Fold At1g61320/AtMIF1 LRR domain-containing protein.
Amino acid sequence: MLTTNKFIERVDAILKNHCTTQVNKFAIEFGLSTEHASHINRWVSFAIASKARVVVLNLSPNKSALDRDNYDFPFQLFDGHSGSHLQALQLHWVTLGPPPDFCGFANLKMLDLVFFIVSQDLQHLLSKCCVLEWLRIRLCFFQLPSLSSLCVQEPLYRLQYLCVEDCAFREIEFHAPNLMTFEYKGSRTLINLNECLKLKTATIRLYLNDTLEYVLTWIPCILPQVDTLSVKLRISSKMSGFTQPPLKFIQLRHLTMEITSCCDPNSVFQLAFLLEAAPLLEDLHFDMFGFDLCHGDLDDIMDLPHYHLKIVCIDGFYGTAGQVGLAKYIFKNALALEHLIVKPGWKLKLPTSTSTGYERYGRQEANKKLVPLDTNSVLTIL
């Protein structure tokens, strides 16, 4: 196993033999921290001098070490000229504290920040990357609570891809009129994307239990123009007193929902509200996990015809009251339906014999409860 001292000696030896070389990509991937700052700074200076267009510092240790001192990225080594060649920057396990006089990366197009600590405003760094096209922020931690707001007031006109995952931001705000893809994983938070009219694809992964009502009110508010949407959440209960979606996905055509639900069958059946919330929806895919076998009376949901839905897939069908009620609603109201695909089974990791048994039961329930409803021959049971 390569020790830290041996790694440092090896890097120094390699760079010594290439001191006049111009490189395209410079990467360091080894578990280092603030105690090795002098060595890392020297290597970063080499990357600057060699006009590297891509710089990667992945200093993650071989095992978890949350209590260690992260390396402070040396913003002081970059000025308007020295940072002008940099087009892609990937930083893992560092501390970011850009000084107030930091002039930015004038030509940086791609920024990937993973498992890092913020000691100064992160938005100050991002506002100085005016040609940024691709941005991922994942596992961000704050030295002070006041740093937990990510509000970038400077417009990022070229930003097309934005991903924020596993961070505890109190609020997120970007002015990115050309943003096309947005991905978010975390808890409920305030998100303002300021009318990104070109935003067509979005992925939302929510940590906590939520009712479907939250999805039907919060997501259309921040993503009204989205065309393709993927949502993962756990539905903890039915929507109490909910009669119709107050907001609509006015452009949504492709929707995938990965759902884990508790025992109330209405929490599944009320997925039918999605058809009203997305009047232009064309294909709908459900991945259903861990549904309880509790049964009960289903709520009454007003029948409303849907004129665009063509393809529906229910993966993880087990014949519960909520699932059957949802399929019945789709049969009755999706007037343009061409395919309703049902994949029986229990979508949790189980022994093979148990999994096969659940799949067999789900298929029996589909044949018994759904086939009689298939008057237009659109049902496929896999």
